[in-house]
Amino acid sequence: MSSSSTTTTTTRLLMLKASDGVTFEVEEAVATKLGAINNMVEEEGSEDLICLPNVNGKFLGMVLEWCKKHANNNTNSDKGNDEVNKWWDKEFVMDLDQNTLYHLLMAADYLSGTELVDLLTEKVASMIRGKKVEEIRETFKIKSDFLPGQEEEIRKKNSWAFE
Amino acid sequence: HTSKSSILLNMKHRISEKCSNRIRNMKKKRKRRRKSESYFVDDDDLLLEIFVRIPDIQSIVRCGAVCKNWFSLIKSPDYYHKRIQFQSLPLPLSFTFIFKLKDYHGSRVVTEQFYEYLPEESKILHGFNSYQQSTYLNFLPWRKVRIFSTFNDLLLFSPDRHCVTRLMICNPLTRQWIELPRLPLALCQVDCGGFLCEPTLPLQHNKQQFKLDQYRYRVMLLYPDGPVIYDDYEGRTDYTALTFCSETGIWSTSSSSFPGDFDTQPMVACNGMLHCLEETMDMNYTVDRIIAMDPFRDANHPKFHRSIDLPLDCRMGINLSNVVRFRLGLVKERLRLSQLLPNESAGIGFVLKVWELNYNYVDDCNDNDGFSWTWTLVHNVEVKDRHKLRLFVIAFHPNNGNVIFLLRGYRHIYQYDIVEGKMKQVGKLPDEAKKSCYADLQVFTLVHPFWPTLLPSV
């Protein structure tokens, strides 16, 4: 009935379990930055343990780190927040190697973390910009599957873009 | 009603069952992910998200040569739509202005210099990070060129400095150009020139890449044929039109006589016709009317050129209808005319009027030759501006009818939002611009379609 001074700031906690069994205890406000988790919470309406069999613990951890930062920064309704977020995002993607970037992007997409997907696709795009075709293939370990002559034709048609 | 501390204890037995349900709900959208040996992102939706974030067209075209899937994605309507959405810009995406300045020494033109203004989107499209002036056309092997006119993202120019014998069509974004067959004669005085392209097949506009040979096009140069003839104080010039037809690859000449003189501003291609302002020969450079030429007809055909009277509500008279007060241009592929005058009643500021031309298609057996038009007054504003610097309209914003570009004090380029009344400086011409006369300043507008127009390799 009249309980409470203790329940003032009820930050609900959720348990997230990655594919490799690693679990994370996070505040609901943080986890719901991820569309997929938000849906689950809304649908079910109760606290729970959520299993995420497609995301490895390492990358889930990184995704949650990002969520946490953004959830925290967004609570202070300060104007400088956008700037802080931008700066922090820049740091976050700065030194990601190709492998981590790939897995992180897959995890963010899987968890419907729209803003994080935006950030990461932007990063990938910046890695493609200004590169030669061979460099793009090398960076992203893509094999050309064109039939003989097809690639030459594309290059010839658009020779201006290949210099 | 479980308390937080007991979540785990209470839930453990339900976990496995619930988790499997959720995962099923969670990822309905993984529709187009495919199995592939390729290591990198193989989800088409994600790839498109990446591609739309690559702003310069050169990098995008290169992506198309990486692998089959990337190629088909970049050519897909999905990419096109996503890109438009992402940029949230109206089409065409961007534009570039090229300014031509003349520097006189006495009455002799000493130098002609080009300067360009690229809005932010245009810089991004070109892949320019930092931007220096006067470098846009530097890829051309000729030190000096004469630009006649533009059509979309193509530029018509001659590398000949004195008498014109060669004409080129160039796309400055792709840095390609082609040479048209030599002119049948060397033209030492060309008053104006223009060109006009029409797709030969009904093509889905902007959704695919155009190549010049998918168009039929006409190039036209007008040159005075003999001296100016004066009779009864009225001047008259006989002009010859030299027209190139892309289907036959042949230049042909035919004479036409116009009562006036042509303004040096570039011709504006609209509605299948080339338009230019015609000045009277009274030495006041007064604009009289607009001449619309149809280069798809023979120049001897009676319908080859017609005149379009200026709007009734534009102000005429010495100084008021001087050619520098008018500007012809395109907004969303429709012809617009502006008149900017000093605000005499207020003593300060200016009055700006903008009209749009509507072509009415009537039956050919009508009196009017099947040709009629009306002007619509789109803007009529009085601005009490405290600056006393000279102000001229230099160009229209090709996508936004409310925005116009002004030149102030001969050097400063302003973007003016007519409806909101907002004036913003966006660029500056170099110091030398002060020496040149406004009437000699030519502005060419390049409008870049979604994919740059390709020129056939010669």
UniProtKB/TrEMBL annotation, chain A:
One of its GO terms (biological process) is ubiquitin-dependent protein catabolic process. Residues 115-161 form the SKP1 component dimerisation domain. The keyword S-adenosyl-L-methionine does not apply. The keyword Kinase applies. It comes from the Eukaryota. InterPro entries: SKP1, SKP1-like, SKP1-like_dim_sf, SKP1/BTB/POZ_sf, Skp1_comp_dimer, Skp1_comp_POZ. One of its GO terms (molecular function) is kinase activity. Pathway: Protein modification; protein ubiquitination. Involved in ubiquitination and subsequent proteasomal degradation of target proteins. Together with CUL1, RBX1 and a F-box protein, it forms a SCF E3 ubiquitin ligase complex. The functional specificity of this complex depends on the type of F-box protein. In the SCF complex, it serves as an adapter that links the F-box protein to CUL1. Part of a SCF (SKP1-cullin-F-box) protein ligase complex. Belongs to the SKP1 family. This is SKP1-like protein. It comes from Trema orientale (Charcoal tree). The lineage of its organism: Eukaryota, Viridiplantae, Streptophyta, Embryophyta, Tracheophyta.
TrEMBL record, chain B:
Gene3D superfamilies: 1.20.1280.50. SUPFAM superfamilies: F-box domain. Residues 44-83 form the F-box domain. InterPro entries: At3g26010-like, Beta-prop_At3g26010-like, F-box-like_dom_sf, F-box_dom. Pfam families: b-prop_At3g26010-like (PF24750), F-box-like (PF12937). This is F-box domain containing protein. The lineage of its organism: Eukaryota, Viridiplantae, Streptophyta, Embryophyta, Tracheophyta.
